[in-house]
Amino acid sequence: MTTLEKVNASVALRLSVSKSKTFGDCAKKYKFAYIEKLPQKEFSFHTFGKFVHKVLEDFHSEYINGSNEKFNTVMSKAFKAAKSEFKLANEMQKEAYDIIDAYLKLLVINNDVKKVISVEKKFDFAISDKVVLNGMIDRIQLDDDGILHVADYKTTKNKKYLKNDWLQLLTYAYVIWSENQNIKNIRGSYILLRHNFEYITKDFSLEEILEVKNKYETYAKQIEEERLWTAAPTRLCEYCSYLDICDEGRAAVRPKISIGKTAW
């Protein structure tokens, strides 16, 4: 594997799951965010996600580091720490509390705490002489059958879009394999926090994991060759940071209403 030291920083493209997906969804948004580096708007659902992620990270970190305190004691401290860092509306804070409370009850039933061996694992390494891959894995655990299991917490209310989208988890599997190339398969899951911690899970073969490198090299080539940066508007443009400066996006979510000769 190419190391960061061997990569020419002037030609290497830094890619992540979110960057790659942004380009795949809308090249114009990619240009705004990663080339022009325009500020990105912080929506309330972003803050909510960061809040819950922070609670779960701090909670599991305590036990990874050997804590013997009771679950509710450690979780209470983690929740208070998140409250001091992120400001949520009362309604969202109540929802976050309910999610964490439900999580505690499941931990007691399933006794999964000792399975979790890493949280918020950062990675930043070159996969070729032109592409550097970076990001963070929410959670890694060792399952009872001995298979390493990478997981990403999701706070989405609509889980349908995740059913056939494995790139994020495959990327994490590739990172784990890169550190130990004797591994033959890795399990991946999206953990749906707003759906009673439902798991969307798949076991990845080594062939599937190794294909990740080609996917990112393809993204890098497409980005390098892109010239038009064309918008791909959908109704989801309503949640785009750049809606106010994107004509195509505004047209998708704020269409003019015409009656006779009047339009507004």
Write the layout of secondary structure elements.
Elements: E1 13-15, H1 17-25, H2 27-35, H3 44-64, H4 71-85, H5 90-110, E2 116-126, E3 131-142, E4 148-154, H6 167-179, E5 185-192, E6 198-205, H7 206-225, H8 247-253, E7 258-259, E8 262-263
Helix pairs in contact: 1-2, 3-4, 3-5, 4-5, 6-7
Plain-language structure description:
By secondary structure, this protein is α/β, with parallel strands linked by helices. The chain has a domain at 4-38 and 115-225. 44% of the residues lie in helices and 20% in strands. The protein contains 8 helices and 8 strands; from the N terminus they run E-H-H-H-H-H-E-E-E-H-E-E-H-H-E-E. Strands 1, 2, 3, 4, 5 and 6 form a 6-stranded mixed β-sheet that branches. A two-stranded antiparallel sheet has the order 7-8. Helix 3 (44-64) runs parallel beside helix 5 (90-110). The longest helix has 21 residues, at 44-64. It is globular, with a radius of gyration of 21 Å. 26% of the residues are buried. Residues 1-5 and 257-264 have low confidence and may be disordered.
